[in-house]
């Protein structure tokens, strides 16, 4: 377990060490309260990862176990290939890049922009219609 569980540099070093046995990972991002340095004693660790292919359940479980043992906290592991809104927006706007190329990061940002322009307005209209229907019943 880490000495200072809220120090971003310590968290990043622990994540790098814990995931060093997973060479298939081409991108790793810390996001959430630890990345924003707002974590409480009971906060989990939010980590986004990306491999060339979607991760299997077994791979995810092994990564979660390695991270939880290294960090001493519950882990929320997100496959960046499958991340949707609003998590993807949180990852690209407040995340701390740990591993990955600028090209991979740029592709993730581009996908976030496209999702926000195409999908999020539709999502908001659907939620508004549901709210209005519920309020006016």
UniProtKB/TrEMBL annotation:
InterPro entries: NT_sf (IPR043519), Polbeta (IPR041633), TA_antitoxin_MntA (IPR052930). Residues 15-103 form the Polymerase beta nucleotidyltransferase domain. GO terms for molecular function: transferase activity. CDD domains: NT_KNTase_like (cd05403). It comes from the Bacteria. Keywords: Transferase. NCBIfam families: MntA_antitoxin. This is Nucleotidyltransferase domain-containing protein.
């Amino acid at each position: 377990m880490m000495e200072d569980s809220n120090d971003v540099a310590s968290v990043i070093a622990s994540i790098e060490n814990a995931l060093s046995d997973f060479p298939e990972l081409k991108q790793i991002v810390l996001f959430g309260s630890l990345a924003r340095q707002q974590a409480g004693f009971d906060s989990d660790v939010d980590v986004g990862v990306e491999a060339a292919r979607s991760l299997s359940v077994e791979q995810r479980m092994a990564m979660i176990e390695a991270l939880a043992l290294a960090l001493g906290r519950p882990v929320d592991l997100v496959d960046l290939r499958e991340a949707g809104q609003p998590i993807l927006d949180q990852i690209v706007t407040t995340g701390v890049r740990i591993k990955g190329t600028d090209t991979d990061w740029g592709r993730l940002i581009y996908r976030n922009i496209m999702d926000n322009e195409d999908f999020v307005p539709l999502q908001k209209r659907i939620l508004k219609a549901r709210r209005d229907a519920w309020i006016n019943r």
